[in-house]
Specification:
binds 5-O-phosphono-beta-D-ribofuranosylamine, 2 domains, Rossmann fold, globular, two-stranded antiparallel sheet, 205 residues, alpha/beta, 34% helix
Length: 205
């Protein structure tokens, strides 16, 4: 019997280059998962086009058509549950998820963030790293909890900041690393190689 594939839902809001990296890793069989659903909160997100090009189900769920955050998130929960998803990957998803959603999928939501957390959570991250004079930045895959960019760290990649870097050049070099570490982190999770122990993610021996 062929074992069931590990199922992902990917939540997006924009260009979807991390979604593309996940798709490419699956197509190369470097990631033994399947994407069961892509959900965008932005109608014309390019990420949805990427999903459709690869024959994936991609839907736009409009937050404005719900009376409040809870009912929007309930609808999101139902969509994802209907696909029996194992892991939810935020990939440039620009809405903060509330308690309701996070509790529904406890320890099964991960995110990629373009800094070395806990430095520079939130927005305008590369600009802030440059303004601060940091010599290194990078990216972080982490579990999602109610604190923005505050969940346990799964993996990180370090990127050197050069004197002539600007926001664009730094973002591009960080993004290259994001595309490597995000699919790798998903593969580690699906292989059961990680244990979440409080704030720490430990690699099983
Ligand atoms: C990435 O830099 C990611 O780290 C951040 O949002 C950006 C999304 O880019 N959370 P993309 O939509 O995956 O191209």
């Amino acid at each position: 019997m062929v074992p069931n594939k590990f199922k992902l839902a990917v939540l997006v809001s924009g260009r979807g280059s991390n979604l593309q990296a996940i798709i490419d890793s699956i197509e190369k069989n470097a990631l033994q998962a399947e994407i069961s659903l892509v959900v965008s909160n932005v109608k014309d997100a390019y990420a949805l086009e990427r999903a459709h090009k690869h024959g994936l189900e991609g839907i736009f769920l409009d937050p404005k058509s719900y009376p409040d955050r809870n009912s929007y998130e309930q609808s999101l929960v139902e969509q994802i549950r209907s696909k029996s998803v194992d892991l939810i990957c935020l990939a440039g998803y620009m809405r903060v998820l509330g308690k309701h959603f996070i509790e529904a999928f406890s320890d099964r939501i991960i995110n990629i963030h373009p800094s070395l957390l806990p430095a520079f959570p939130g927005l305008n991250v590369q600009k802030r790293a440059l303004e601060h004079g940091a010599h290194f930045s990078g990216c972080t895959v982490h579990y999602v909890n109610e604190e923005v960019d505050g969940g346990a760290i799964i993996s990180q990649a370090v990127v050197r900041i050069f004197d002539d870097d600007d926001e664009t050049s730094l973002s591009e070099r960080i993004l290259e690393q994001e595309h490597l570490i995000y699919p790798e982190a998903i593969q580690l999770i699906l292989e059961g190689k990680l244990t979440l122990a409080g704030r720490r993610v430990l690699h099983n021996k």
